[in-house]
Write a structure and sequence with these properties.
Distance between the termini: 31 Å
CATH architecture of the largest domain: 3-Layer(aba) Sandwich
Number of domains: 2
Shape: globular
CATH topology of the largest domain: Rossmann fold
Helix content: 25-40%
Strand content: 5-15%
Structural class: alpha/beta
CATH class of the largest domain: Alpha Beta
Radius of gyration: 23 Å
CATH superfamily of the largest domain: Vaccinia Virus protein VP39
Strand order of the largest sheet: 5-4-3-6-7-9-8
Length: 335
C-alpha cells in the first residue's frame, strides 16, 4: 500500500493567527483573552482558506485547535499545590508560558495575506513556495528546478496531478503544495491523490481524490476526474519501493507530448526504510532514473551510423525526450 507524504512542518498559517480570528471549530476551547494560541495549544493547525471566504474577501480561516493533556507548562492550580482538574489530568496552563503575542508575528500576517489574496499568481514559483509555507519543497531546494521547468507553463491550461497531499492520516492536514499550484497556475485543473481521506477545500479547480498510487484503477480514475491525461505529474507520494515505477508506467504513456513528469525525494532510494539500499535497487526511483537515461541515449543517431561499435542499451520506457536530475528530484520531458 502506498503512504501519502508531503514531508515537513505544515506552516501555511502558523498557530498565532488563531487567537486573532476567533474562528475555531465548534466545541473547541478558545485561548484566554490576551494570550496567543501558541501559548494556549501546542497542536493548533490551520486547514486552509475556503474558496467562498476568499471570494468574499473576508479574513476568516478554518482552523482546528486542541488542548493536549500533559503537554506544555504546569497549571496555576498545580503550582499552588492544589489538586489537578476534575478529570484528574494534568493540564498545561498558558499562565506560565510567557510567550505572549498580542499581535501575530509578521511572517504569520504575510502568509495569511498571501493565501487570502492569492499573490502566488504574481510571484516566481520558488518565492511562492517559501512565502506560502505548508510544503517542504523550498527546504529541499526543489523550488528552483520547479521554476526552471514549469515556469513557462504557468499561464497554460494544464492538467496537474500531485501524488501525495500530505498530513499522513490526519484528514484536516495537507494541501500545502496544492495551494501553490492553484495560485501559480490560475488556468489549470488540479487533482491531489492521497491514500488517506482528506478534508481539504481549495476551490472549484482543485479536487482531492483518495486512492493508491500503485493502483491502475485509481490512477485511471484520477485521469477521468482531471478530464483527460495530465500534462504535469508530481510524484511526492509514498516513495516506497516499486511505487514510483508503478505510477510512471501507468501515467506517462497517457501523457501528451511536451508533458513534464516529476519524482521527488530520490534520497529514499538509498534508504532501507523505504525499500532502498546502496547501490539503489532497480525497483526504486533512482533505478527508474537510470533506465530513463538509457531511454534517452538510444536516440543518439550514432548507434545507427556505427553499428560496429555495439548494440543500443536496452530500456522499457518510450517517448522520453530528456531527463533532468537534481539533488533529490528529477524531471522527465515527454518527447
Amino acid at each position: 500500500m502506498s503512504v501519502s507524504k508531503d514531508a515537513g512542518p505544515h506552516r501555511a498559517l502558523p498557530r498565532d493567527i488563531l487567537a486573532k480570528t476567533g474562528d475555531l471549530q465548534p466545541g473547541t476551547p478558545k485561548p484566554p483573552k490576551g494570550l496567543c494560541s501558541q501559548a494556549f495549544s501546542n497542536q493548533a493547525f490551520v486547514s486552509g482558506v475556503s474558496e467562498r471566504d476568499w471570494s468574499l474577501n473576508t479574513p476568516r480561516v478554518r482552523a482546528r485547535a486542541t488542548m493536549t493533556p500533559g503537554v506544555g507548562t504546569q497549571s496555576q492550580t498545580e503550582q499552588d499545590g492544589a489538586a489537578p482538574d476534575e478529570q484528574g489530568v494534568e493540564r498545561k496552563s498558558v499562565l506560565t508560558n510567557r510567550r505572549t503575542c498580542m499581535t501575530p508575528h509578521p511572517k504569520t500576517r504575510i502568509r495569511s495575506i498571501a493565501g487570502l489574496a492569492r499573490i502566488g499568481a504574481l510571484l516566481p514559483l520558488d518565492q511562492a513556495f517559501r512565502l506560502y509555507g505548508g510544503s517542504d519543497k523550498w527546504l529541499h531546494r526543489y523550488s528552483g528546478p520547479y521554476r526552471r521547468h514549469l515556469g513557462s507553463k504557468r499561464l497554460h491550461q494544464n492538467r496537474i496531478l500531485e501524488i501525495g497531499v500530505g498530513g499522513y492520516e490526519d484528514r484536516e492536514m495537507g494541501g500545502g503544495s496544492l495551494r501553490v499550484w492553484r495560485d501559480c497556475f490560475p488556468l489549470s485543473r488540479i487533482v491531489g491523490l492521497d491514500l488517506h481521506e482528506k478534508n481539504v477545500d481549495l476551490g472549484a479547480r482543485v479536487t482531492v481524490v483518495q486512492g493508491d498510487q500503485a493502483s491502475a484503477n485509481d490512477l485511471n480514475h484520477v485521469v477521468e476526474v482531471l478530464g483527460g491525461p495530465p500534462n504535469i505529474v508530481i510524484d511526492d507520494g509514498s516513495h516506497l519501493v516499486d511505487h514510483a515505477i508503478a505510477s510512471f508506467s501507468i501515467l506517462f504513456p497517457q501523457m501528451p507530448s511536451g508533458s513534464i513528469y516529476v519524482v521527488e525525494d530520490l534520497q529514499t532510494s538509498y534508504s532501507p526504510n523505504w525499500g532502498g539500499g546502496i547501490p539503489a535497487p532497480e525497483t526504486t526511483a533512482i533505478g527508474l532514473a537510470r533506465d530513463l537515461v538509457d531511454a534517452v541515449q538510444v536516440q543518439d543517431p550514432t548507434f545507427d551510423r556505427r553499428p560496429q561499435d555495439g548494440p543500443k542499451p536496452s530500456h522499457w520506457a518510450a517517448d522520453v525526450g530528456a531527463v533532468h536530475i537534481y539533488p533529490g528530484i528529477f524531471f522527465i520531458e515527454k518527447a
